[in-house]
Amino acid sequence: MGIEVKNLVKSFDKKAIIDDISFKVDDGKILSIIGFSGSGKSTVLKLISGLLEKDSGEIITTGGDIAMVFQYSALFDSLNVFDNISFALQERKDLRGKYTRKELEKIVAEKLELVGLSGIEDKFPSELSGGMQKRVSFARAIVTEPKIILYDEPTAGLDPISSTLIEDYIVRLKNETNAASIVVTHQMSTIRRTADSVLMLYNGHAVFEGSPDELCAQQTPYTKQFVNASLEGPMKMN
Amino acid sequence: MKIYYKATYTYKIFRMLQSEIVSFVSTLGNIALFGVELIKGLKTFPTTMKEVMAQSSRFGVSSLPITLSIVGMTSVIIAMQVAGEMVKQGAGNYVGMLVAILMVREEGVIMAGFAIISMIGSSLASEIATMKVTEQIDAIRVLKVNPVHYLFTPRVIAGTLMMPLVVIVASLFGILGGAVASNLASGLTYKAYFDSVWFGLNMHDLKVCILKALSFGFVISLISCSCGMEAKDGAKGVGIATTKAVVWSFVAIVILDLIFAAVFFY
To answer: Is the pLDDT of residue A157 over 90?
Structure first.
């Protein structure tokens, strides 16, 4: 089943940021959540990952771990790549002591190979480019073999070629792990290259739900405005 | 019909005061909650030994030069000012005792506390605050690791255990500095000075000194970590958290000092 969200509501200071949103993502599928800055996209991810408490609604998952890739990678800058990736295996209460050093080295090497970065275990995050940091954060996210992967603007701040590479890895991770994935993004290229379905948010409401092709067909005023990046339309910038 | 009220200066001052009180109570509550969470996390102590050692080195070794300088200079200043007068009044045999009691009961521990807050407390707060605003703390949570246990426990254990060592070394250094200053300023012999030190010091003073140092170490590291954890809004938030950690730690150790003085020496 992956993940199902029903009638999700979240308010800050009595203002509804997420207002009655529902969607479903099956295993091995990718949902792109799009919308203006401040439309509540990242809040949805934080609610699913448990970083924020929902006011009401339901978040139903198949169980297993939920992993999250943060907008600016959020790698631990005092730890090297090896310790970053194996962090959960070394520090999580239920996993601590379960793996020997050799087993950890093997797991980390496998994950790094999966994101195309073999042999950088001893490097620190400050020694890596933005794109490499992002890929290391992918490796860290999948180390516990999660059933759900959340990506918060994974291509933000990257050049177009690095963005394409990151998009390819999102699809590759989906295929390798069969996890249900949610990608919050602003970029049409990310939607076209990765998404199986798209959800558009505006002022905390879902204003479009459909396939990337339907989004590009611009059949509603919302999709027309978003795809054309137009200032004219129903969505107003604050 | 909407009625608009003009915000008077009195109203604005009242709102500012209200906001400060809310912030004060909220910080106090958070420190208490983090303290409780930290105590729960003490069970993880053996597995974080490596980190405890790293943090101990930070507390003990990194802070020592500045702590010794401050405590040493304070004792030299005191000895320079009082030794001459005391020798003139025929009380030269009490200079060592005065400096030693001052160092062990008060100056050594409070000055070391100020030095540790400035060097280590501020660095702990800014480190954790930076982790907070760059979502590293969120990443720890998503990976199902308790950030209070992972970050606070080794730092607070290290701070609590290392503070007495720093205070003892600093107090000894202060007493030595007092001896040199008394000798240079008033010609007091080292023998007379140290005889007076042995005569004046007792085990009760040392026990209270160590107890006070333990509590200062605990409070400084807990407040610094807690204030760091409260940070928000980017670089500005890191600055605010660091300042808050320093101010709160200063106030907390002065209050603790007062309590110790009232309980043990009043």
So the answer is: no
